[in-house]
Amino acid sequence: GVPTSFPALMQAQKISRKAAAAGFEWDSLDGVWEKVREEIAELQEAYAVAPKAANGKVDAAAASAGAAAVAAVEDELGDVRFSLVNVGRRMGVDAEGALRSTCRKFRDRWAWMEQAAWQQGRTIEDLSSEERETLWNEAKKRERS
Questions:
Q1: What does the DSSP 8-state code read for residue 62?
Q2: For residues 52 and 11, is the Cβ–Cβ distance under 8 A?
Q3: Residue 9 near residue 95 (C-beta atoms within 8 A)
Q4: How far apart are CA 101 and CA 98, in angstroms?
Q5: pLDDT tens digit string along 103-120?
Q6: Are 39 and 76 in contact (CB under 8 A)?
C-alpha cells in the first residue's frame, strides 16, 4: 500500500510505520540501535571485499564479480539507512524533516565557508584540508552563537 513513486525516504518511513502497526516491531529503541550496528558491520564487510578504484569508490568493472559486489554494498547501505529511519520513527522524529534540516544546515555552512575563502581571495578548492576543516568548525560555532 505504499506507492513506489514516493521518494525512497518517504517509502521507508511509511513501510516502517505499517510494519510496526502490524506488530513487526522491536521491543525497545535499544533493539533498533542493535540492528543499526549490525547493518553497519554488514556494510563495512561488503565494502571491504568489493573491488575499488584508486579513489576508494566501489568499481563494478574491476573484477568479474564486481557488479555483484557493488550491488551488495548498495544493498547494505540501504539497510543501514532503513534501520536509521526506524530509529527516527521510534524516537518520534520524521526522517525526511531531519534530513531536510541537515541539508539546509550543510548548505548554510558551505556558503559561509565559500564566502570566508572568497574574502581571502581564494576558493574552497584552493584551501588545504586543514584550512577547510578550520572553516567548517568556525561555521559550526557561528551557528551556535
A1: G
A2: no
A3: yes
A4: 5
A5: 999 999 999 999 999 999
A6: yes
